[in-house]
Design brief:
The protein is an alpha/beta fold. It folds into two domains: 3-18 and 231-416, UDP-n-acetylglucosamine1-carboxyvinyl-transferase, Chain (Alpha-beta prism), CATH 3.65.10; 22-228, Enolpyruvate transferase domain (UDP-n-acetylglucosamine1-carboxyvinyl-transferase, Chain, Alpha-beta prism), CATH 3.65.10.10. The chain contains 14 helices and 27 strands. It binds uridine-diphosphate-N-acetylglucosamine.
């Protein structure tokens, strides 16, 4: 198994173009299943989660070709309607195919996603939304068998939690349902807007994304479309935190500054200067960040749970005290024990973590999940000495050429052996 050797404690500087958003590409690839013909999707990063999604599309009878960062998805004649268990385990968010398969094929079978490294990953909201649209869903020995025998019919769906995946699943299914579907209590994440834009480019009639009420007039025939996936706000947050912690300057392009408002506010409070100008975000930092007011993760536009670990890592090597409250997932502090190996002082009690910044030192650490792994890299870049970060398979799920991007900023990072 390979690892990163990172010799930290030196400032970084340079420009980066941010990759396409992982959390947009996955539902957009599922949406490509809705239209007979070939969709052309630009800005699809080379990530293991995207490769898993490509595998699913092929299993369903689609052809998928990659040309650089463009994916050509031909959904002329899908044949399969089952996602095997190993692929569901590889990527639990493949549940996003349920709505698309029901809309296009009238049938779907996949295994129940169960728990994941972040804790339980329920899909009750996905299932009740699809049932409300007329899907029959039976759970048997960990498999979910879903059919839309009489077709799907639009209706009003109320989500008790603004779940990103449930909102996306409902939008996809609603495109294949007769009549209007209204999703009340929808997630407002930018990735929902990106999905709406792609669906509308395919001829769908979706409106309201970005607000708590999304409407879909279903039943219109969809056609393939060419589309460019938005920039990845979480990858951008990771690079901002890395340079914030190590010190230096960073110019990012390819990401919408307004998507990063909550993260940018914390970095500014911690002592960085940030400017958004002409589609670029510029950060300057002297390193050794100060503490900030309580960071409470929340649905968009609140502080993203996916950026909690990387900000914590940046502040752990700083000089102030910060309280984190993780409200979205039960088990999202697994990076804390690994950061402690680097000398971090972080006290966890349930969903609260208190970080007291102090200089970190190099250590051998192991990623426990995608963003937790990125956090270890952020900490290692600021820590004196040469660290070894293992468990790169987690990091590869969400960061395209992480080491190359950081090396371009002057980081001493090498893939070993
Ligand atoms: C998506 C993102 C993930 C991010 C998360 C929250 C993708 C591929 N993943 O995940 O990176 O961390 O949003 O911003 O886009 N819940 C239920 N029942 C359900 C569904 C969700 O109780 O049926 C709960 C979850 O346990 C969690 C909360 O709702 O506490 C939010 O989860 P959700 O927005 O659904 O996250 P995902 O779509 O899985």
């Amino acid at each position: 198994m390979s690892w990163f050797e990172i010799c930290g404690g030196r400032p970084l500087s340079g420009e980066l173009r941010v990759q396409g958003a992982k959390n947009s590409v996955l539902p957009i690839l599922a949406a490509a299943l809705l239209a007979p013909g070939q969709s052309v999707l630009h800005n699809c990063p080379g990530l293991s989660d995207v490769a898993a999604t490509e595998k699913i599309l092929r299993l369903l009878g689609c052809s998928v070709k990659r040309e650089g960062e463009t994916l050509l998805v031909d959904a002329r004649q899908p044949t399969g309607c089952e996602i095997p268990d190993p692929l569901m385990r590889e990527m639990r968010s493949s549940v996003i195919f349920l709505g698309a398969m029901l809309a296009r094929l009238g049938r779907a079978e996949l295994s129940y996603p169960g728990g994941c490294e972040l804790g339980p990953r329920p899909i009750d909201l996905h299932l009740s939304a699809l049932r409300k649209l007329g899907a029959e869903i039976v759970e048997e020995q960990g498999r979910l068998r879903c059919t839309a025998g009489k077709g799907l019919t639009g209706g009003e769906l109320c989500l008790s939690i603004p779940s990103v995946g449930a909102t996306e699943n409902a939008m996809l299914a609603a495109c294949g349902a007769q009549g209007t579907t209204t999703i009340v209590g929808a997630a407002r994440e930018p990735e929902i807007v990106d999905l709406q834009n792609f669906l509308n480019a395919m001829g769908a009639r979706v409106s309201g994304a970005g607000s708590p009420v999304v409407s879909v007039e279903g039943g219109f025939p969809l056609h393939p479309a060419e589309y460019t996936v938005m920039g990845d706000r979480i990858a951008a947050a990771t690079y901002l935190c890395a340079v914030g912690a190590a010190g230096g300057t960073l110019e990012l392009e390819g990401v919408e500054a307004s998507h990063l408002a909550a993260v940018a506010a914390c970095l500014e409070e911690a002592g960085c200067s940030l400017q958004a100008q002409g589609g670029r975000i510029c950060l300057k930092s002297r390193g050794r960040l100060g503490g900030v007011r309580t960071v409470r993760t929340a649905p968009y536009p609140g502080f993203p749970t996916d950026a909690q670990a990387v900000l914590m890592a940046a502040l752990a090597g700083g000089s102030g005290t910060t309280v984190f409250v993780e409200t979205m997932f039960e088990n999202r502090y697994r990076h804390v024990d690994e950061l402690a190996r680097m000398g971090a002082d972080i006290q966890v009690a349930g969903r609260v973590a208190v970080v007291t910044g102090r200089p970190l030192h190099a250590a051998q650490v192991r990623s426990t999940d995608l963003r937790g792994g990125a956090a270890l890299v952020v900490a290692a870049l600021a820590a004196e000495g040469c660290s070894r970060v293992e468990g790169l398979e987690h990091i590869r799920r969400g960061y395209q050429d992480f080491e190359g991007q950081l090396a371009a900023l002057g980081a001493e990072i090498r893939l070993r052996p």
